[in-house]
Structures are given as structure tokens and as C-alpha cells.
Amino acid sequence: MPETIRGAIEKNVEERPDKPFLHFEDKTYTYERFNATANRAANAFLGLGVKKGEKVCLLLGNVPEFLFSFFGITKIGAVCGPINPACKADEVKYMLNLSDAVVLVADEAFDGMIESIRGDCPALRRVVLTCEADHATTLSFDRLIESASSENPPVEVAPDDVAAIIYTSGTTGNPKGVLLTHANYISDSESIVRHIRMTDEDRFMCILPLFHVNGQVATTLSPLIAGGSMVLVRRFSASTFFENVDKYKPTAFSAVPTIYAILLNRPDVGDYDLSSLRFCICGAAPMPVEVFRRFEEKFNAKILEGYGLSEGTCASTVNPIGGTRKVGSIGIPLPGQDVEIFDDGDRPLPAGERGEIVVRGPVVMKGYYKNPEATADALKNGWLHTGDIGYRDEDGYFYIVGRKKEMIIRGGENIYPKEIEEVLYKHPGIAEAAVCGVPHDFYGEEVKAFVVLKDRETMTEQEVIDWCRERLADYKCPKTAAFMKEFPKTPTGKIQKRKLVETQWQAE
After folding, report:
1. 165, 189 contact by CB (below 8 A)
2. What is the dihedral of CA 502, 503, 505, 508, to 10 degrees?
3. Which helix (H) or strand (E) holds 97?
């Protein structure tokens, strides 16, 4: 088996050059054509002076340019840094500087925003846009790669070389850069392929964003490892989902519970042929039992619930496709990975007892970029400490019951309260702020802000929301806000968030 991302695509070129790998709208790329385009991107980056180990960030949606860039960057031993296109200027600037990015590849729509922050990103040397012609200060992606060589670039890449820096928020508020190696990506992809019995006949439809590891691993690299193919759609749309299944005949897709709930409520299902679907992967948040059962009954496709995190590349547990699938469980460990439940003293707990989920194996990240303290906190004695609380049953199936870290999961998106609280505290009229996840019928959880105003200050709920919207991606912003006289606190002064949510204590 290949040991690098580069090796995975080049192996397929040798074995099945004319087989379609990527389907996107009206375009189809065979393995040979896809690899040639990725090589052009790789050699173009070399032409821009990108050296092995340097960071190239991507501010792109689900478009082929993302994949050409991702493979091109990793082919030359550089490091790919995908950024959520929903991020605002300050967030993009922070991540560019966090990673010391030397090149940014972005959608043309971000040209104005990039120009506004470019002067504050000292390491950034070039900006490449998905536009037809070069601009005064930017390059056209198409023009950049059209004259570059389609031959494999002359760079040696090793399994332990870092392939990507994945931005993930933490309890400190600011995003951290997770360093994933080629070996991490290949190991996790191979274990997914083995566990869910993927073959070269499988065609995975990618409806989740490519900046997520799920899009990179489960729906891109896994079918690549299996010698299969993928269908890329710009974004999930309930109105076009069934049309795409009918048109492209995918055998599988990966989604979050919110998407399954949306699809269940579509009235036009019977208008399309969905018989190609063999299985569906669900992760990022617990799947409601009723949604699980109704979906399988309606679509005749097995749902495989799983669990993973960026620090573990993507997936660590998944329900087996050929064995017992337990509704509500995140499944069993993937091949080559060890998963345990530890107590606070890092001692293994027996079945049925709750503790922290820990993971060990070749999928565990190299560490956080320039953050040795956070790395040491997460990686202890070879185990990745996930911060999630769960238990294992007598049959070896794992379940999540809570989270150590104060994380909100809204429709599958991880949201960290501290980051939002930092923004609220910057408002001159706010004395104290707390952000919590509150139950929501559709998204599972929704973001709510609780604020204590300074003396003689006044604000409306909409003003609180708008303040956040100007500074944060929309999905992170509070949808409701409550004004408090004071917060319930522990004797040491810590805000009691659970009490705040349960009782909406002294909310006005």
C-alpha cells in the first residue's frame, strides 16, 4: 500500500489511468487527468518558490481547484492549510499568521477581503485566485498551472512529513493548528476502507466541506485508496441532493445528523432513482434514534455511525457494516487503532464506567503547531486525550455521553464558547459574557449568549447578535441573547454555565 498521499494517487495512475476518479458538475477527471492537473499545481507552487515544509493555505469551497491544490501541495512536501470559507477577515488573518502561510489560494470572491488583511500577514508572499486573468497583486490559478509541467515533481516526500495543518478551536478560544502527516492520512483512509469494505466499485459523494477532515479523508482519500471514485458537489442542497444521486449513482456519502433529518422531510424522494446507495456514514454529533430508523427504512441504505476528531485525522470508531450495528453507539475501533476509556488518573476503566475517550495509533496527530503546552496536554504516554466523555459496553461498542471541553455542536459544526465570549468581552458595554449551547429541535444545539452589562449601559438582543456577526463566521454567532443582573458562580468565581442554561437564572 502507498505510504504518502502522493503515492496513493500515483499508484492509481499506474493501475487504472483511464478510470474516472472525480466527477464535478459536467466535468469528469480520470486518474491520469486528475494527477496531471495536480502535478501542474505542484510544479506551479515550486515555481512560486514554495519549499518543503512551507504552508500554503486554501480559502476555497468544494471545487476541483481545492483538490488540485491539496494534492499539488502535498506532492512537493509542503503543508496544506484549509480555511473555512465562512470565516471573516480577522479569523482568516489569524490562521494565515498562525501557520506562517507563504501562499494563499482563494476564491475570487475573497479578493477584497484578502487585500484588506494582506499587509498584516508578513509571511504571505503570493495570493492566487480562481479567476480568469492575473490581477495587479494576485495570480490566476488557471493561468498559473496551464504552463506548468504535468510530470511528477522532483521532490522526495516521506510518510512522517506533515501534509496538512488543520485549524481547530480549543477552550482557549483561538484556533490551534493540528499537524497531520502523510502517514496519518493514509493510515486512517486505509482503516476506513477495510472497516466498511470499500471496493473499486464504490463511488463516494462529497457533500460535506473539503476544509473538514471528513471531506478530505472519508470522501476523497478513502475512495482513492480503494481505487474507486468520488462525486464532488459545491455544497449540500436538499433540493438537488436526490437529483445528484440519480445522476451520478453514488454508492455512499458522509453527513451529519442534521442533513439526514432534512432529507427525511423532502416530499420529492419518489421522483428519483436512489438504488445506488449502499451505505451512509454519520458523525460529528449523536444521531437521533428515530431519524436513524426512519432513514434506513425509507432509503434502504445502512447508516454507519462513527466518531473521530481532527487530532485523530478523521475517524477512530465506526459501526461495522457487516456485523452488529448498535443505534446510538459510535461503533468499534477501526483496524490499527486502540480506543479506551480512562479515568482522571489515566487508568483504563472497565465496561460500563464513564471516563475520557482516548485514542492510540498511527492516526494520532504529530502535535499542535507552535503550541507545545497544548500538545503535551493532549498527547500523554502515546494516547490522544479527546476531551470527550463516554463508555464502552460489554460487547466493545463505544458511546459518547458528554464533553469535557465546553464545545457546542450545531448541525455538525464544532463551536467553542470561549472564542465567542472573547468577542463579546470586546464590546465596551459588556461587563461579563457566557456562551452556552441550548437544545434545538433541528440543529441539536444552538448558540445562546448571556451577558451582564456595565452600569448605565443599554443593549438590545439584536445588537449583541450583530456585534458577533461582524466579527465571526455566521454559524458561530449567537442566535439568541439574554441579559443578566449577575451570573451564578462557584465559590472560586467560575460561572456555572450548566445552572445558567437549566434555569436561565435571573434572566430579564
Report:
1. no
2. 110
3. helix 89-99
Question: Cell for 502?
Answer: 437549566
Long-range contacts, stretch 495-500, CB < 8 angstroms, 24+ apart: 495/432, 495/434, 497/406, 497/417, 497/434, 497/436, 500/434, 500/436, 500/450
Dihedral over Cα of 301, 305, 309, 313: its sign? negative
**Residue recorded with cell 460561572:** 495
Rounded Cα distance between 155 and 158, Å, is 10
Least confident of 27-41, 469-483, 493-507: 493-507
d(CA 37, CA 53): 21
Is residue 477 predicted with pLDDT exceeding 70?
Answer: yes
Which three three-digit cell numbers place residue 467?
456585534
Q: Residue 173: which pLDDT band, with cuts at 50, 70 and 90?
A: low
The per-residue pLDDT of the chain, averaged, comes to: 92
For residue range 97-153, list pLDDT tens digits in order.
999 999 999 999 999 999 999 999 999 999 999 988 888 789 999 999 999 999 999
**Edge-to-edge strand list for the sheet holding 317-318:** 27-30, 20-24, 229-232, 203-206, 252-255, 279-282, 302-307, 317-318, 332-333
Gap between the Cα atoms of 17 and 508, Å rounded: 66
Residue 295 CA to residue 359 CA, distance in Å, equals 30
Question: Quick one: cell of 119?
Answer: 499587509
Task: Give burial (CB, 10 Å; 0-12/13-18/19+) of 76.
Answer: buried
pLDDT above 70 as % of the chain: 96
Q: Would you call 43 exposed, middle or buried from its count of C-beta atoms within 10 A (0-12, 13-18, 19+)?
A: buried
**Greatest extent of the chain over all pairs of C-alpha atoms, in Å:** 72
CB 178 within 8 A of CB 168: yes
CB 465 within 8 Å of CB 432: no
Q: What is the DSSP-derived secondary structure letter of residue 218?
A: I
H/E stretch holding 232 reads strand 229-232
Cell of 370: 507552535
